[in-house]
Amino acid sequence: MVPSLTRAVRRRALALAGALLAVGGVLLWWLAPFGTSTPSGSITFSTGVRSGVYQHYGELLKQAMAEDLPDVTVTLKDSEGSQQNLARVASGEADFTVATADAVAQYIRDRRPGFERLRGCARLYDDYVQLVVRKGSVVQTVSDLRGLRVGVGQDGSGVRLIADRVLAAAGLTPSRDVTAVPVGIDAMPEMLEKGELDAFFWSGGLPTAAVQKLSERSPVRLIPMDAPLVDALRDVGESTRLYRSATIPADAYAAAQDGQRVPTLAVANLMVTTVEADPDLVEGFTRSVIDSRDSIGSQVHPAQLVDLRTAVYTEPLTLHDGARRYYRSVKP
Predict the structure, then answer these.
(1) Tens-digit pLDDT profile for residues 106-140
(2) SS in 3 state form for the chain?
């Protein structure tokens, strides 16, 4: 009787131990982080001109990623803007970048090299088109720019793309009716002050530091771009569905606006990568973009407007699988 009792006790003990191991395995699976591995390696992030929002945003995002993805080394590479950024990512010269949605749509429409490889990570903040003149300028509307020297952004920038379209919507041919000066935001404010430009276009988040500093040291104002101009822009013949009517708040550049809101148009910025990018890396990268919104936004105001509810909408780009995995993980 005693040996039988001992064997029964032993069997029950083994069964209990097996059950505990099974429960422990489930708990380990539940608590373990998802994903096959922690991302590591080196990436290049193409930004923008040195004094622009893209560059400052990239610097702060690099700092955030150093904490969130410590095994990933980020190298920043300044650029002329959206069009050059897209070419770099599509060609493999860069791994991630920021570009305006209209520049993305044009890149795809033109079927430029590598267009089919581009994927979206997040919709970020909107860029607002700003047309700046000196306070005493005779310019009241975009059409008044005829015959004047106009800063239109560097050739590889999203500013150049949208400036050409706005001029065309106002009935002007950029190559004939204005003297188009292809310089960026790092040069345009000073050139306006010196009288080397009569006006300049800028497309960026609000407020853009370079425009704000200019407005605080020199008498300048913003030219309105109202609904009829935006409607005309849609008839230019380009893919313009990504533009929307918008308003520059009265306090964006208080010294330049005299307490007045200024009508304009806006377009979204997108975080862009390629279909081949590692899903774990893209998931972590996208998480850093969203989680760093407040810390980056304290220094780059437009970043405060990054919204988890709208970040998933990366039209005209397909969302990258890694980014989709992140959004699913945080979905309520």
Answers:
(1) 999 999 999 999 999 999 999 999 999 999 999 99
(2) CHHHHHHHHHHHHHHHHHHHHHHHHHHHHHHCCCCCCCCCEEEEEECCCCCCHHHHHHHHHHHHHHHHCCCEEEEEECCCCHHHHHHHHHHCCCCEEEEEHHHHHHHHHCCCCCHHHEEEEEEEEEEEEEEEEECCCCCCCHHHHCCCEEECCCCCCHHHHHHHHHHHHCCCCHHHHCEEECCCCCCHHHHHHCCCCCEEEEEECCCCHHHHHHHHHCCEEECCCCHHHHHHHCCCCCCCCCCEEEEECCCCCHHHHCCCCEEEEEEEEEEEEECCCCHHHHHHHHHHHHHCHHHHHCCCHHHHHCCHHHHCCCCCCCECHHHHHHHHHCCC
- What are the tokens at 26? 């489930």
pTM of the model: 0.84
Within a 10 A sphere around the Cβ of 23, how many other Cβ atoms? Answer: 10
Other CB atoms within a 10 A radius of the CB of residue 299 amount to: 12
- pLDDT tens, 67-83? 999 999 999 999 999 99
Residue 241 neighbours by CB under 8 Å, 6+ apart: 234
Rounded to whole angstroms, the Cα distance separating 202 from 213 reads 14
Length of the chain: 332
Tokens for 330, please give them: 């945080």
